[in-house]
Structure formats: C-alpha cells, structure tokens
C-alpha cells in the first residue's frame, strides 16, 4: 500500500509539476502529461483514498484521515464521499433513491424501477461518453448538490458544522483547480482553450476508468434491484443483499487488480469494507466457498472485457424494456 501510494501520487503530481513550470510548449506533450496525470488521479481514487476513507488502509485512524484527503487533492470531497459511498451505497446497494450510485441524471437509467424515456434506447452507446465526464461534474457541482441534499437528510449535525465543511470543500477545490488548471493557464505558453481541453482529457481518462470499474460491479444482468416494503425494510439480511447485488470480475489479473485497488473483488469489498484491498484475492476463495455452502450467489465475470460486455447488455436492456428483463 505504501509503494502504491507513492507511485500513484507521483503519477498524478509529477506531470502537473512539469506543466506548472511553464516549460511545456508542445501541445502533444501537454496532452500527454495531463492524460498521464489522469491515470494517477484514477489510481488515487481507486487505490488510496477508497481504502483510507473506509478506514481500511491502516490501523492508525490518523493515517486513514490524512490519506483520505488525497480525494480532496484531486478535487472531490472526502466528507461527501463518506456519506454517499460508505453509508448510502454500502448500506442500500442497488436500492433506488437510497443508493446514489444508481441515481444518475434523467438521460441514464440504471435500474428497472426508474422511469424509462425514449432516449434510453441509445444509452448503451452514449453512456460511456458521460462516464468520461463524471469526474468533471463531481469536482465542480456534484459535491455541492450532494452536500445540500445530505444536510436535509440530517447527515450534518448542525449549521456550524455544515458551514465549516462547505468552506473546507471550497478551499480544497480552489487548491486543486489552481494546480490542475488556473496556474497552467497563466504560465504555459499555449492558448487557454487548449489547456482546458487537455484538462478535460485528464478528467475523461479518470472518469471513464473509475465509473466503468464501479458500474461493472452492480449494473450487470445478474444483479438484483430490491425495493423496500411499505415499512421501508429490505427483505433478507444485509450480507445476502450484498451478494445478490454485487459482482466480481477479472479475478486472475493481478496487475489490473493492483491498479484499480482490488475493486474487481467487489463482493469481498462489500462484505468486508474494513479490510484492506490487498487481502481480497486470498479472502475471495473463502467467501465463494461460504456462499456456495449456504446456497447464496457469488457472481463473477472471468475477464474485464466479459464484464464490459455484460454491462453493455444491461444498459441496452434497461433502455429498451420496462421491468427487470435481465435475470
């Protein structure tokens, strides 16, 4: 984890430092550096901050706290992510309206219970473009929209606490945008609009990687989308719910798993979010055997591209039919 942290932080920061020196005059070099930084940003998001905010990076709470701020460094907000991901997504996985990961804008349909529009017929084609833009939305407006929503839901204990979190979010975003966009526009001897396009290319790489990886775990044909009963309860126990709504993929690819922070072992992560992802591969055999022993599903796609194909299929079916057509 320490080696990965150093590598991913350097992969993100070194290209940006080079850009901020003002010595880059080539457009192709500018785009290459931004895109390289985008891979580092994705690595930080999937392999460092994700474990840290789950308190599974280290036994030391301070280490987890400070490494969780790497999410703030890349422009998002750790406090908002903790609510959206740790609390809502991990508690109410694939439950419409409760799980924010499946509550996208109206032009995307991720559950069979969401209203279907005509445009959804083509979502299996255009969704990938919007995946690429997801982190741009995240670091600009989405955090603030969610902060306001979570405040109404009672996640911020009082007005003073909310105001402090809001000011910290604004401060961190100013720091991040200064590093990745404002200073480069000032010092790099290339037209500002080209720098903005290079900045967007960095985020497109990051957004496409992160969003695709997370979507492959839940928006696939064998996932279930349970609804609460009239009293607000979900049938069954929490652990079974995680197994029915989550899927693994590409378990044999160690290099790929290293880069994406073990998120190909999403079942293990959802059942044991307080365990560091470096242990998921060995734990997976125990989890799979236990699931079979108790007659519970253990969904697994053998390769990344198989999972991509299944997600594509699910997007298409959700776009063309009402109800749950993919069993």
UniProtKB/TrEMBL annotation:
Keyword Iron-sulfur among record annotations: no
Pfam family, one: FA_desaturase
Lineage: superkingdom: Bacteria
CDD domains assigned: Delta6-FADS-like (cd03506)
Limits of the Fatty acid desaturase domain: 28-299
Keywords: Membrane, Transmembrane, Transmembrane helix
One cellular component term from this protein's GO annotations in UniProt: membrane
InterPro entries registered for this protein in UniProt: FA_desaturase_dom, Fatty_acid_desaturase
Transmembrane parts of this sequence: 7-28, 34-54, 66-84, 125-145, 166-186
GO BP: any one term: lipid biosynthetic process
Protein name, per record: Acyl-CoA desaturase
Source species of the chain: Christiangramia fulva
């Amino acid at each position: 984890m320490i080696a990965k942290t150093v590598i991913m932080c350097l992969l993100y920061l070194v290209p940006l430092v080079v850009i901020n020196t003002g010595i880059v005059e080539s457009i192709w070099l500018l785009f290459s550096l931004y895109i390289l930084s985008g891979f580092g940003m994705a690595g930080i998001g999937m392999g460092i901050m994700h474990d840290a905010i789950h308190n599974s990076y280290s036994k030391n709470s301070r280490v987890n706290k400070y490494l969780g701020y790497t999410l703030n460094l890349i422009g998002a907000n750790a406090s908002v992510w903790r609510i959206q991901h740790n609390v809502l997504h991990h508690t109410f996985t694939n439950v419409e309206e409760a799980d924010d990961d499946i509550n996208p804008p109206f032009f995307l349909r991720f559950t069979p219970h969401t209203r279907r529009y005509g445009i959804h017929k083509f979502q299996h084609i255009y969704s990938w473009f919007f995946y690429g833009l997801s982190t741009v939305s995240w670091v600009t407006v989405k955090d603030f929209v969610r902060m306001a929503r979570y405040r109404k839901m009672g996640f911020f204990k009082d007005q003073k606490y909310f105001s402090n979190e809001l000011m910290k979010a604004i401060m961190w975003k100013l720091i991040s945008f200064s590093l990745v966009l404002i200073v480069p526009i000032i010092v790099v001897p290339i037209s500002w609009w080209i720098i903005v396009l290079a900045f967007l290319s960095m985020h497109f790489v990051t957004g496409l990687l992160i969003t695709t990886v997370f979507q492959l775990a839940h928006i696939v044909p064998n996932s279930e989308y349970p609804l609460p009963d009239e009293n607000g309860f979900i049938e069954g126990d929490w652990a079974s719910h995680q197994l029915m709504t989550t899927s693994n993929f590409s378990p044999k690819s160690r290099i790929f798993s290293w880069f994406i922070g073990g998120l190909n072992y999403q079942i293990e992560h959802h059942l044991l979010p307080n365990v560091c992802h470096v242990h998921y591969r060995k734990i997976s055999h125990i989890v799979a055997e236990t699931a079979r022993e108790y007659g519970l599903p253990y969904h697994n796609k053998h390769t990344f591209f198989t999972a991509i194909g299944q997600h594509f299929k699910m997007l298409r079916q959700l776009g063309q039919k009402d109800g749950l057509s993919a069993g």
